[in-house]
Amino acid sequence: LVILVSSSPSFFLRSFFLSLSRCICYEGMNAAVRATVRVGIYTGAKVYFVHEGYQGLVDGGDYIRLATWESVSMMLQGGTVIGSARCQDFRTREGRTKAACNLVKLGITNLCVIGGDGSLTGANAFRTEWSGLLADLVKAGDIQKFSSSHLNIVGMVGSIDNDFCGTDMTIGTDSALHRIIEIVDAITTTAQSHQRAFILEVMGRHCGYLALVTALACGADWVFIPEMPPDEGWEQHLCRRLTDQRGRGSRLNIIIVAEGAIDRNGKAITCENIKELVSKKLGIDTRTTILGHVQRGGTPSAFDRILGSRMGVEAVMALLEAKPDTPACVVSLSGNMAVRLPLMECVQVTKDVTTAMAEGRFEDAVKLRGNVNNWNTYKMLAHVNINIAIVNVGAPCAGMNAAVRSTVRVGLLQGHQILAVHDGFDGLAHGMIEPIGWSAVAGWTGKGGSNLGTKRSLPHEFMEEISLSITKFNIHAIVIIGGFEAFVGGLEMVQAREKYEELCIPLVVVPATVSNNVPGSDFSIGTDTALNTITMTCDRIKQSAAGTKRRVFIVETMGGYCGYLATMAGLASGADAAYIYEEHFNIHDLEVNVEHLVEKMKTTVKRGLILRNEKCNANYTTDFIFSLYTEEGKGVFDCRKNVLGHMQQGGTPSPFDRNFATKMGIKSVLWLTDKLKECYRHGRIFANSPDSACVLGMKKRSLVFQPLEELKDQTDFEHRIPKIQWWLKLRPILKILAKYKINLDTTEKAALEHVIKKTGLVP
To answer: Which residues are catalytic?
Structure first.
C-alpha cells in the first residue's frame, strides 16, 4: 500500500493504495509500486507505504511509512514488498471509519488500489462513504473539519487469472503463463519418450484464461474451462480425438484442465476423472500434474514489469487530472494502450460473467469475458484448391514456427494445399518447395528458431527464377514470415509485377524479428522472447554485483538501428540510461549520465545499469562508452561490459509470442482466402491491386492489414526502421524512473473511456 501526499496546494493530493481482498501477491506488482512511487515523488509529492493491504490502512501507526526513491530500488524481481492481507475490519463501517481517520491525519484524499474486483469494489464503497465518514469523525471529535469532502480512487488489477473485464491483461498473468509453459515444455519431453498422456491442472476457479492460452501455446489436444463446458457425450469425443492423434503418429497427448472446469450440469471435471476415462477406455499410460501455487511465484516476465510500470505511471496521471466529480477509474490495457475505464462499469461486467455462468448462459460468459477470439482459435486449430506457400525470411526468431504451424493447419482446414519453402527466397527461387501436412507441424509451437530455414537474401537477386517456381508449383498465394527483409522482399515482388505476371498473386507479410522494426506493426513475433532474455540476463548481471558495491554495467543489445529492445529492457530491468539511434545523444549527454551515476553511488543504491543499442552511434561504441565510464568513474565506481549477441535470437518462445504468432498465422490465411475469392477471374488468380499485398500488423488495439505500397512512404529504408514508432513516447518514463530531472509532457489528457469487450489480442 503506497500513499502519496502533496506538499504543495498547487498539486492534486495523490495516493497509491495497494489492497487485496485475498492475501495473494502477483509478479509485476512491485513494478507498479515502483513506478507510482517514483513518478509521485517526481511530481513533488510525499509518498507513503501502507503495509498489509486494507488491514494496514485500518490499523495505521507503523503500517503507514514514508517511502523514498531508494526504498523501491532493486524490487522488480517479483511479488509485493509491502504485503497484502485479508481484512474483515474494512468490511464494517467502523473499520472504514478508522481507515478514514488515518488518512485524514496525513492529509490524504487520493488512493490507488491494486487488487481484484473485490478490492476495487471495496475502494469504491470507501469513496462513496467518504463524506459521511468524515462527518462521523468530526462529530466524535476525532478530527477537525477537513477541507476536502471527496476521495479520488484509481485502480490497477492484479490477478493471474486475467478475470477482470475491461482489460486485455492483468498484472501477473503473463508471468503465470511463463511458469506454466516452462512446466508443460518439460513434461512434453518425458511424455514423448514414454508415449504417455499428461493431464495438467492450472489455476482458474472461475476463469479459464490460463488454461485456454496454455492450450493454444502448447498445442494441447483438449482443454476444459469453466466458461465453456463440453457438450454432452464429451467423453466419447475426447477418446476419439486422442485416438486420431495417435493414429497420425503423435507420441503424446496433452490435456489442459482449469481448476474450475465443469460439465453442462455443473458437475466438476477433475484430472482424476479424465485420467480414469483415458486409462480405462484407451489403455494409454496417463499421468496427472497439478501445478498449484508455483504459478504465482518466480520472477516476473518483461511484459508484466513493463505493464506494471506503465499502469503505475498512468495511475499517477489519472490522480493528477482528477476532479471532485471524476468517477473512480481503473487503468486498463487495450492492445498496446494504457486506458482509463470507469471502475464500477468493469466490476459490473465482471459480475455479469459470474451471473451468466450460474444461469448456464456459457456463450454469453465467453463473450463478456472477451475470450471469443481465443476460444474460436483453439477450436479451429485443435481439429483437423488453393496452393499457399509459406516462407521464412531474415534472421530466425522465437515464434516463427508457431506462426508456420497455425498457417499450415488453418490453411488445411480451409481446404488449401500448403507448400513449405525452405531457406527463404533462395529456396523459392531454386525449387526447395514441398507440401506440408497436419502432423508435420506437430510440436512446432514451442520450438525456437525456424524449422523451415531462413536467409537474408532478397528476391531482386533472382526474380525470374522465383516467377518460374511460382508457375511450376502452381502457387496461388504466399505468406512471408520474417523481419525487415520480409517487408522489403514483399515490396520488391509487388514492384516486379509489371514485368512478371506470375507475381500477381496475393501475399501477406507477417512481422517476425527480435528488432521490432517492421513498418505497419507495433509488435513483431519474437520480440517478447528477446526482451525476456535481455531482462533476465540484466537481472543476473545485477545480482552478480550483490556483494560488490559501486559497480556499473554496460550492456549492448541487438535491434539494428531500432532502439525498441534497449528501451523496453531498460524499463523492465530498471536501467539508468538506454542509448538508442532514434534519440540523438552527444558527449555532453554521456557526461550528464556519468555525473548522475556518481551521485547515485552516494545513496544506498550502489549499482548502475546502462543499455546500448548496437547501432545507436557509429562513434560512441560500447567499447568507447565503457572506457569513458571507467575513466570518469575512477575512484567512485568500476565498470563491466557485456555484449549479449545472438543469445537474444534463441530460446523457446514466450507465451506471448506463441499466442501472438498463432493468431497472426490464422489471420493471414483467412485474409488470403477471402482475397483469393476476390481475385479469381476466368479460371485463374490475378491480383494486381495495392491491397492484394499487405503487412499484417498489430496497431494500437487490433490486427490490421496495410498495403506494402502505402507503408513505403512511412519507412526509413537506410536505417531499416519505421519513421514513426509508438514506443518512443515511453522514453520519458524510463528517465523519470531513473531519477533524471526532465520535463514530462502532460498536455495530452487521457479521457475516461467506457468498457468494451476484450480484443483477446494480448495473451
So the answer is: 161
